[in-house]
Amino acid sequence: MAIFMRAKSFLYSSLRSLTRSQRCNHTLGERGLQAELYSGMAPAPNPALRPIDTSKWKKIQASKVGISLSMISFPSWIVLKILHKGGFEAYLVGGCVRDLLLNRTPKDFDVITTANLKQIRKKFHRAEIIGKRFPICRVHIKGSIIEVSSFETVARHDADKEKALSSLIPKICDEKDLIRWRNSRNRDFTINSLFFDPFTCNIYDYNGGMSDLKSLKLRTLIPAHASFQEDCARILRGLRIAARLCLSFSKDTERAMYDLSASIGGLDKFRLMLEVNYMLSYGAAVQSICLLQRFNLLNILLPFQAAYISQHRATKNSMMLMKLFFNLDKLVSCDHPADSSLWVGLLMFHLALVNNPQDALVIWTFASVLYHGNWKEGVEFAREYTKLEVKFVPEISEFSETKSDEDLAKEVAQFASLVQDSVGVLTETSNLFESMSRYPFSACSGLVFVPKITAKNTAKLFDLMVEDIRSFINGRGRMSPEINFHLLGIGDPCETRFVLGKIILETMKAGPRGDATEIGNDEKDLQPKATEEILSNNEIPGKKVKKNAPSSFIPDGNRGMLKKQKLVDDDTNQEMVTKDELNDLAEKHQEFGKTCKLSENKTNSMQGKISEKEEKSKKDKEKKSKKHTKVVEKSKHHIALHTASKKQQRVVRELNLREEDEMDNLEKVLGKEEVKERTEEHKGRAGKERSGVSSLSSLFR
C-alpha cells in the first residue's frame, strides 16, 4: 500500500510540474509509467481521461473569424440578454457556433447559462422544463423555441466523471474557463464543443474544434468507440453533420461507426424519427442516404429503400428515389426546413410506384393535380408534358396519350389510394416483411419508427383525390408560385401537397438523364469531400448563395395559366431536341430547297416584302402584349393578395397577436430603444439570400 501511495504521489507531482509549464501532452515515457503503475491493479485507467494541456485552450475574437452579433437570431439574442441582465453567464454553444464559423445558417441556436433551470424558467413569460436524463428549459419567444441548458445540470449528471477529471485539472486555472471546459468534455464531437460569448465577443475552444473545423474533419472528443457506446445516437448525428457540411471522418471515428452501427436498432423510436427527420428535411437528404447506405444503417432504418438502391446499383439503372430527394434538397434548407410529412409522403409515393408500376400519364396527372390544385388545369398540363419519354424502371410501366378523362380520373384516384395504403410499410412490421418479399436476398430487421399519427396525417393529404378527384381543389388558391416555408414547416396540408407535386413534376421532367443524383458504384464515392474551403488562420470562405430555380412548368407569377413552353434542360440550358429530330428537320429542309424553282431575285423580293410586313405586325403585337401582360400582372397581384385561404389568414393573425404581446413584455425588460434597434437590424438581414447546399459531384457520377 505504501508503494502505491508513493507511486501515486510521484505521478501527481509530475502532472503538476507539467501543467505549470503548460506542457501537459503525453510522452512515451509518461505513457509507459502510467501503464506500469496501473498494471495489476483494477480498474484500468479510462482512456478518455488524459492530463489537461491548457496551452491548447484558445480564446479567439469573433470579429477575426467573421462572426458579428447581427448573425445571431433575434429570439436567441433576447434570451441571452435577459439572462445576462439577471447576473448570469450566458453563451451560445454547439452546432450554432460551428455553423456561424462556416458562414452557414444554423438549424437552431442553443444557449447555456450558469443559472439553474428553475431560475431560467422564472426569467421568461413562457418557458417549461422538459426531459428527464438531461433536462433543459424551452423558452417560447417571438414565434421561436430556444433551448436553454444549465451548466449545473451537466455537472450534476456526470458527478463521477467530474471527480475523475478533478485530479487532472491544473490548480492555477480561471474558474470560468474550468466551468466551460468541464461542460465541453460532455459534447459529442470537437466541432460541437465551441462556446461563443456574445457580450465579450470571444469564442472559446478547449478541444481543438477550430483546427478540426478548418480541416473539415469530424472527430469525437473521447475515443470514438467509448463515445458511441455511451450514446449510439451520436453515430446518426455524426452522419447527419457530415452530410450537411461535407465533412470527412477521422480514422478512429469511421472505424467505430462501422463496428457499432447495429447498436442504433436499440434506440427509442422517437429518437430515431427525430434524427432521420433532421437528415431528410433540412436540405441534405441525398448525402444522408448515401452515408446511411455506406455505413450499413439504411438497411436497419429503411430496409425497402436500401434493397431498392442496392439492386439499382448492381444493374446501373437510374434511381427515381434518389432523384425525388435530390429535388427535395433543392427546395429546403436549415433555415427553411420542411415538416416530416413531406419526406414521408415521398416515400409513400415511391413505395406505391415500385410495388404497382403506373402509366407515365397517370404519374404526370397525379403530380400535376397536386401542384395546380385542381383537376382541369392538372390534366391539361399532364397531357402537354406526357409526350416526354421518361424511363424509370420499375416505376413506369408504359406510355399512353389516348386515355379519356374519365378513365384517367379513375386510374389516378386508384393510384392515390395505393399511395395511402403504402404507409403501412413504414408503420407496421408485418407490412414491411410482406413488401420485402420483392427483395428476398436483402436483410430486414423489421424495425419501423415512423409515428402512426405522422403516417395518418400524411395519408390524409390524398383523401380528396381518392374521394372525387374531378372536383378536387387544393385550397391553396391562386397564390404565388413561391413556397410559403412557414406553412411548409408546420405541415400545412395545402402547402405540402403543392410542394410534393412540384418535386414529382421536377423529377419526371428531368428523367433519368444522370443529373448527379446517383449513388456511385465505388464505396469511396460515398465519402463527402470538402466543398467549403477554410482559409489559413481563422479566415472563413465567402458565403455560397442558394437560389430557388424558377420552375420550368409555370411562367413567373402565372401559376394556373397554361401556356405552351419549350422545356429547357437545367444543366445545359439548351432545348431538349434529340439528334434524330434535328437530322430529320435538316433533310426535310434540303428536300424543300430542291423543290423550290423560284429564281433568286424573285425569292429575295418576295422575302423583302414579307419581312417588312412581318416586322410591322410583330411590333404591333409586342406593344399590345406588353400592355396586356402589365394589366394581367397587376390583376393577378391583387387577386393573390385577396384569395389566401381563411386558415392561413387566421394563422397570420394569431402570430401577429402573439408577437405584439411578446414585444410589450420585451420592452419592459430590455427597453424600447434596444428592442427597436435589434428588430430593425434583423429585418434588414431577413431579405438576404440563404446559404446553398454543397455540390454533389463528389458523391455521385
Automatic annotation (TrEMBL):
The gene is LOC107955089. It comes from the Eukaryota. InterPro entries: NT_sf, PolA_pol_head_dom, PolyA_RNA-bd, tRNA_ntf/polyA_polymerase_I. Residues 248-307 form the tRNA nucleotidyltransferase/poly(A) polymerase RNA and SrmB- binding domain. It comes from Gossypium hirsutum (Upland cotton). Keywords: Nucleotide-binding, RNA-binding, Transferase. Belongs to the tRNA nucleotidyltransferase/poly(A) polymerase family. This is Poly(A) polymerase I-like. Residues 90-219 form the Poly A polymerase head domain.
